[in-house]
């Protein structure tokens, strides 16, 4: 039986004081979701507060709506799961071989401070599972600690949305924390694509991170490759 992967989604829907809405970026959810589901893996969606997990409205329209996003919107099972997610407090790490923290600007508010975001990352890490995230979702790993009490990302190769990308989208003036800066503060070995918005993934042991929406399917493929390596012959 293929392994199960937990997808963690933000419950934060307000883009700071802008009056605009945010949430999960659909491409970062859908592209990774179908890489794994199409390969036979079980994906469980969950959100910080449970219930309907908000999607960033900008990710639902052209030019940002991708084929994977359109497929997700038309997928009754996937849409139903998104509309009624369990809350993280009710989720245990048991049975999950990997966790994937999905990005979207909303994650910058609740991922770094939520106790269950941290709990699940640490539990899956301690059990030898894979901890992964993409874009702002990588902030879900920044409060977690390794078994020795050091930051989980310290001394390890990591990536997330770059400060330059935040500046180009003006999110640097809106979000409460910049993922690149936070990773560096924690001792992470940050890297990024040569050009803003280029796909880029960093892999270090059981830690896999992606820079931006274009990186989401690459993260999922690396997670899948690692899961296959861990299956006994």
Please characterize this protein's 3D structure.
The protein has helices at 26-37, 67-74, 76-83, 107-110, 115-126, 163-168, 179-185, 216-229, and strands at 4-9, 42-47, 96-101, 130-134, 157-158, 189-190, 201-204, 207-210. The protein is α/β, with parallel strands linked by helices and 233 residues long. It has one domain (4-229): 3-Layer(aba) Sandwich (Rossmann fold), CATH 3.40.50.880. Helix 1 packs across helix 2 and helix 1 (26-37) runs parallel beside helix 8 (216-229). The radius of gyration is 16 Å and the shape is globular. The model has no long low-confidence stretch (mean pLDDT 96).
CATH superfamily: Class I glutamine amidotransferase (GATase) domain
CATH architecture title: 3-Layer(aba) Sandwich
CATH class: Alpha Beta
Determine the strand fraction and express it as a percent band.
Answer: 15-25%
What is the terminal-to-terminal distance?
13 Å
Set down the secondary structure blueprint.
Elements: E1 4-9, H1 26-37, E2 42-47, H2 67-74, H3 76-83, E3 96-101, H4 107-110, H5 115-126, E4 130-134, E5 157-158, H6 163-168, H7 179-185, E6 189-190, E7 201-204, E8 207-210, H8 216-229
Parallel strand pairs: 1-2, 1-3, 3-4, 4-8, 5-6
Antiparallel strand pairs: 7-8
Helix pairs in contact: 1-2, 1-8
Features:
30% helix, 233 residues, two-stranded parallel sheet, 6-stranded mixed β-sheet, Rossmann fold, 8 strands, globular
């Amino acid at each position: 039986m293929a392994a199960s992967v937990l997808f963690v989604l933000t419950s934060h829907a307000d883009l700071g004081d802008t009056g605009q809405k945010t949430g999960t970026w659909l491409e970062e959810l859908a592209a990774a979701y179908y890489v794994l589901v199409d390969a036979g893996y079980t994906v469980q969606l969950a959100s910080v507060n449970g219930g309907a997990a908000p999607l960033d409205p900008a990710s639902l329209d052209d030019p940002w709506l991708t084929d994977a996003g359109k497929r997700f919107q038309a997928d009754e099972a996937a849409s139903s799961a998104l509309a009624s997610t369990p809350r993280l407090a009710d989720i245990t790490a048991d049975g999950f071989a990997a966790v994937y923290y999905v990005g979207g600007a909303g994650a910058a508010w609740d991922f770094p401070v939520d106790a269950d975001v941290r709990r699940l990352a640490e539990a899956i890490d301690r059990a030898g599972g894979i901890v992964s995230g993409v874009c702002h979702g990588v902030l879900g790993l920044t409060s977690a600690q390794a078994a020795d009490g050091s930051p989980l990302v310290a001394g390890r190769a990591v990536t997330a949305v770059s400060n330059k990308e935040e500046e180009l989208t003006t999110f640097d003036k809106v979000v409460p924390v910049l993922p690149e800066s936070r990773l560096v503060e924690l001792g992470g070995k940050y890297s990024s694509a040569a050009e803003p918005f280029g796909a880029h993934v960093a892999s270090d042991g059981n830690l896999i991170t992606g820079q931006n929406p274009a990186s989401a399917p690459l993260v999922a493929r690396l997670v899948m490759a690692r899961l296959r390596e861990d299956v006994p012959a």
